[in-house]
Amino acid sequence: MDQKLQNQVAIITGANSGIGAGVSAAVAAAGSTVVINYPFPALQPAAEAVLKNITSQGGNGIVYCCDVSKEEEVQQMFAAVVRQFGTVDILVNNAGIQEDAPFEEMTLDQWNAVLGINLTGQFLCAREAIREFLRRGIDPAKSKAAGKIICISSVHEVIPWAGHANYASSKGGIMMLMKSMAQEFAPKKIRINSICPGAIQTPINKAAWDTPEALQSLLTLIPYQRIGEPDDIGKAAVWLASDDSDYVTGASLFVDGGMTLYPGFSTNG
Ligand code: NAP
Q1: Which atom of ligand 1 is nearest to the CA of 171?
Q2: The whole model's pTM is what?
Q3: Domain-embedded: residue 122
Q4: What CATH number should be reported for the domain holding residue 145?
Q5: Is 167 a catalytic residue?
Q6: One of 64, 167, 247, 262 is an active-site residue; which one?
Q7: Total domains present in the chain
Q8: Is the CB of 68 under 6 A from ligand 1?
Q9: 37 closest CA partner among 28, 26, 50
Q10: Residue 3 lies in a domain
Q11: Average pLDDT over residues 5-29
């Protein structure tokens, strides 16, 4: 891959697993130093394994433990990264969870857990990133932009999802958070976009692909007829982080094999 992100520093949240691990590998292969964030000390070995895979291919990075729903921890993470590397150029707001329940049975704890990580976590990390981008300004040797934020949203920022009201609400919220930030900071040359994955093969949706029957049922929702891989998202993230997308801000990029094309209407509805 071209070194389109050379000499840049990227924080990827929730990167000990799944899409975050794939994005970390792709961003590192494009030349960026990566901060592989993970939420709890027990997950350090998983984060170290992601880093080892990257360094074995010539990439560079560190692992960093921080719960993105905790304001103080997020502030400490950004301060530590700026202390070690001088700045942050790219934030990939990826950490997310599901706590599914029929609506009438959903507890306030389930609601708050999902909104706290998926939406408030993106707010807290984006705010620290923007503060750093504003402090540093543009470094033309690295990028035309003062900074780039990529919010990992979902097709469920537009597709309602029965039994997942907390998750769909968090992703709908990310859409307006992303667009409002993009509008506010475009004049400062800070670009903010979302990637909206469809079904990507990761631990979060294991039940949807780990038996042939489940996979067959899932494929009825995907016109392109394959499940996505973390690298599908990684490649899109590299493009959105690079100057190749310099005129793109406030966009939701659907990387979903056509899941948002209303496949139920493909045979005339
Ligand atoms: P995943 O493998 O479960 O990854 C989620 C990551 O976030 C995990 O590393 C998780 O750690 C971490 N995390 C959870 N709480 C955190 C916290 N408080 N602070 C920091 N990190 C935290 O699932 P994934 O599919 O890669 O999901 C990544 C993102 O993609 C999520 O935002 C998800 O909503 C979105 N997405 C996924 C799909 C899909 O089909 N896979 C589709 C649309 C959107 P643990 O190891 O403890 O879980």
Answers
A1: 34
A2: 0.98
A3: yes
A4: 3.40.50.720
A5: yes
A6: 167
A7: 1
A8: yes
A9: 50
A10: no
A11: 98
